[in-house]
Structure formats: C-alpha cells, structure tokens
Design brief:
The chain is α/β, with parallel strands linked by helices and about 210 residues long. It has a single domain, classed as Rossmann fold. It is built from 8 helices and 7 strands. Strand 4, helix 7 and strand 5 form a beta-alpha-beta unit. The longest helix has 15 residues. The chain is globular, with a radius of gyration of 16 Å. The structure holds S-adenosylmethionine. The site of S-adenosylmethionine has 19 residues, from helix 4 and strand 2.
Length: about 210
C-alpha cells in the first residue's frame, strides 16, 4: 500500500530540490547492483527531509543505524556544519563496498565514518552525545536500538525512525510477521513512553521523530 497517493508523491518530488549528481549516480548504481533491494534507499524526498533536520537541528554529531549504500548518510552530510560527522553502522560487506566506493568520490564523503558489525554491539562502544540518530536497520531490533540510543542523545537531540508505517501493514490485523509485529510494538512503546515526545509523519514509508521531554 503506498502511504502517499502516487500523483501527490510525484508532485512533491517535482517540487523538491533535485539531489546532486553524486547521489543520483549512487541511486542508479544501487538499483543496478541490488535490484529490488534498492527499495531500501530513502530516496530524494526523505533524503532532503533528513538533510533539513540535520541543518535545522544544527546537528554536529549524527549517528545512523543502517548504512546500506550510504544514500541517507550522504544526504544528511549535506546538512552538517563544518566539522560535523556522521557515524553509520552496517553489517553487510556487499553494501559496505558500494557505500565506500561512492563516499570516496562524493563531496563531504570524508565526514562519513562507516562502522561494521552488528549494530547493537557497535553501539555499546560508541559514546554520546549525539545530536541526531537515524534508525533504519533491521526492524526486529528497533526497540533495542531506541533504548540503546536514548541515553546517548544530546539534550536537544532528535531520534528519527524510518519505515514506521511499513507500507501500511501496521494496520493489517492478519499480518503477524516478525517485522510488522516489531514495528507495531515499537510505535506503541514510543507513544506511551513518558520520557519522550514523538510525532509519526506520513512521509514515504512513515517517519517517526522523537525527542526527550
Ligand atoms: C533500510 S537499509 C538502510 C538504508 C539507508 N539508510 C539508506 O537510506 O540508503 C537497512 C540496512 O541495515 C543493515 N542492517 C540490518 N541489520 C543490521 C544489524 N543488525 N546491524 C547493522 N546493520 C544492519 C542492512 O544490511 C541494510 O544495509
């Protein structure tokens, strides 16, 4: 189920500043290399949205969980101030290889630091505070990632969580897959969490923004 009407999505895309050539080229290379799995790319509207959040928050230290080929990391890097950094966590070496190849050629690619390994383990070795954390990896660990990063969030920090509508499957009572159940549980947990304020936005596949109270 597309969350946003396809004509509205196309109109929104046509009225969003186009992505720079290096991100268009990464998008094409990801589609060539990974076929349908390229659906994991955040794409231009969410990419620009993430860049805007980084810029508006004045974020200097950004953490991403789920690099894939580095599209969202590169998009966020464009919103950083001088000296700002993105630390991004990935598990799959095929994804890493494409991400590294394209980061090496991208303006600002040196701001992005890829850390390989299971994200929950890597997170244990990372010190905060982070100004913005983007959660976009395996859905069954969303709650674990949230609980791991909340204490590492800066005072005015923001957690951004992707795919929280899961193509609308969160509403399908017959869908009892692990991913769908994990996303429902995550959304229910966050909205009831007295430590935070959240908003669930219908951008792309659903994006949740969370801040501490
Ligand atoms: C949806 S994709 C990320 C998309 C990326 N943020 C973008 O917009 O281009 C999810 C990524 O998380 C990675 N991933 C899945 N489970 C992981 C884990 N336990 N630790 C680290 N990375 C993981 C996958 O290999 C995949 O590359």
């Amino acid at each position: 189920m597309p969350i946003v009407d396809e004509r509205i999505e196309a109109y929104a895309r046509a009225h969003t500043t186009p992505m720079p050539a290096h991100l268009e080229s990464l998008d094409a290379a990801t589609r060539d290399r990974f076929g349908p799995r390229a659906g994991m790319l955040t794409g231009p509207i969410e990419g620009r949205f993430l860049e805007m959040l980084v810029f508006a928050a004045g974020a200097r230290r950004v953490l991403e969980i789920g690099t894939f080929t580095g599209y969202s990391a590169q998009a966020m890097a464009a919103g950083l101030p001088p000296g700002g950094t993105i630390t991004t966590l990935e598990l799959d070496t095929a994804h890493e290889a494409v991400a590294r190849e394209h980061l090496a050629a991208a303006p600002g690619g040196d701001k992005v630091d890829i850390r390989m390994g299971p994200a929950l383990t890597t997170l244990e070795s990372l010190d905060g505070p982070f100004d913005l954390v983007f959660i976009d990896a395996d859905k069954t660990n969303y709650l674990n990632y949230y609980e791991a990063v909340l204490p590492k969030l800066g005072e005015r920090g923001l957690i951004v969580v992707d795919n929280v509508l899961w193509s609308g499957q969160v509403l399908d009572d017959e869908d009892e897959s692990d991913d769908t159940k994990a996303i429902r549980a995550f959304n229910d947990h966050v909205v009831a969490d007295a430590r935070v304020v959240c908003v669930l936005l219908t951008i792309r596949d659903g994006v949740m923004l969370v801040r501490r109270r």
